[in-house]
Amino acid sequence: MPNSNKQPDNIFIEVVEDCAASPRLQPASPWRILVIDDDEDVHEATRFALKNETFFGRPVEFLHAYSASEARARMTEFKDVAVAIVDVVMESQTAGLDLIHDMREAGLEEMRIILRTGQPGMAPELSVVARYEIDDYRTKTEMNRTRLITVITSCIRTYSHYHAINSSRKGLEMIIKSARELFKPTNLEMFAWGILLQVAALVNTSPKGLVCVRQTASCVLESEVVCAAGRFLHYTGRRVSEVPDQEIVNVLSSLRDLEEPLVSGNYLILTISNRSHRKLIAVIEIDGPISETEMSLVKLYCGNIKIAFDNISLVERLDELAFLDTTLQIPNLNAFYRSFETCLRLKETPLSLGLIQIERFDELIADHGLHMALDCLRQMHIALSQLENLEIVARVGDGTLALLGDPGQLSSENLQDYLHQSYMIDGVEIAPRCRMLLRELDKNEDLPLEILREAVAALLHEPAVVAGKVIHYDQKLRTELERRNNLKGALKKAVEQHDGILVYMQPKIDLESKTCIGAEALARWQYGDEMVMPSEFIPISESIGITAALTDIVVQKSAEWLKERAPDKDFTIAVNLSMYDLNLPGFAKRLLRTIEQTGLPAERFELEVTEGIAMKNRHAAISQLQMLREAGCTIALDDFGTGYASLSQLQTLPVDVLKIDRSFIGSLTTDNARHSMAAIILSTTNALDMQCVAEGIETPEQEKALAVLGCSIGQGFLYGKPCPFEAFAF
Ligand code: C2E
Ligand code: MG
Ligand code: MG
User: The whole model's pTM is what?
Assistant: First the structure.
């Protein structure tokens, strides 16, 4: 919002002096004649001689000084004197000449000078006449009325030429300077101020008036006043139609496509158009008449700053783009940050921050296409924007929107529905899985970037933040987040230095012979006194991109054990891979190199991947898996039944083993539906000639039920919990 009471610091004013008036524009303003003489009669006689005289249509006005020292003291009053009649001998023989010297030195260059003396013998030397540009020299007796009028006419003519030339020169200098200045402002308000001040200076008037900007197609009276000075000051930011000056309103309404400056009544009006179809209209209230020279300068000025106006629109457009998500045409992260910062600074009432995220946005894109996924986000933005008392809803990440508003509105109850909403897009109903985090802000919080970073981190990484639920960012979550942050750095160090990363083994049992045929290697992290579990540190390792290095450690340690404890046996070790591993270009090559370096054949390793691999557009991951399989590794699909893979997709995946998730096994003997599902999975894997491993067998009943269903391999606490190498017996 422009500040109507404050003028910008860089005032561009440079005063341009009045000049000879054009009869067309000019009612008669008087020529100023200065008489400096210590003889009162001379003053009287001069006044009398020129009484009622006009020169080029303008009357005269007198200034009087009675000594050189008085004139010297009043020098600033003589700025626009056209002719000075100066006595040579006053306080001293050369007082007049000395005074003229000082006046010229003080910058009174345009003033014409007639020297007068009572004594014929006191004529100045020719060199003095030339140096101080003295126009005439007369003795007092020589100066009769006719001669005085002739000399003054000639002097005024010369003065007016001088003045016009000087004004043009100064005006041109100023135009060049102004244009340079006007390339600096990056906002319209500053630019408009520049115009108001510069044009006022160019036509030698005080800056009063207004500048408004209109879109070419819109009505001028609807345009906004961008800056205003003088009696219009309070109309900044208002519409032109609200300005209580009928004359201005009339003049502006009658403007057509006029580009030339014009004077209407007491106003000088300029219009400048730019390539963005915007028109800037400046209305400057003028103190007096405007000369033709000034008008020419104003025209030149308008032409000169047109490019600067184009520039402003360009900068404004860039500014707009910086705060707009151009794909969705909604506010972006910058806009959110700006609004957040302002709210924290100025808002007196409580404030809440909300983050809503479409889970696996990339998979939504893979499934439905970019266009539909974005449309889904756009519709979500529209829906959320309907909430009352919101400051902003902006896109702050790929599939993430952020909201800022009243805690009463941003409540779990109000927002719950948005998490379960479906959207019709091109006739297809899409129901994205969404998660949401809410944070009520304390009065003294003032670091928007930090608050946003923490909230996004919680949204992305906190296991508590799950789809379909509104989660509050409270002290508990904050503590977890802090812990996670600390763990990040420590884990990186542990993996880099191979320090504290342990491998636990859990046996895999042939259910028929009850013998141990292999083991699953499960990572553990000894962090100080604490044993951190993979459910906590694997997601952290994924977020900091160190999963491949972690896999290397697990493979190397497992291989050491194999070489020592089961060198010749047909005993395999299963190592878990993360989806992040497989999405990493060159991961398969790296893993095969690590295996090769252990000196063991790839056949001794089974690689467990989760169902995410079955998703579309995972071609690169699948081809890495194929490479590992071709090299001899067995590939197992872990946690089957919890994710996205369907039985029909199994055929298309390079998978040898299927591990039924323990959620099916746990309820095998109690839940009929689960029982049937396990039965279907087992019969399908048999048909596909795949091996099936049941995870999480804890009771003999479960074991029995699985044996009936034809499952041949089992894993679970019934046979052994994961344990360190030393404790592992098989
Ligand atoms: P997973 O691959 O499904 O491993 C089996 C998990 O189930 C292990 O948890 C194991 O302790 C647990 N478990 C086995 N039998 C039973 C049972 O009878 N009852 C119950 N309640 N639980 C049982 P753990 O070791 O905490 O590992 C959790 C997950 O972390 C693993 O699930 C795996 O996905 C991941 N993980 C472990 N180590 C690594 C690793 O080195 N790299 C990667 N990328 N992921 C790993
Ligand atoms: Mg596993
Ligand atoms: Mg599993």
Answer: 0.55
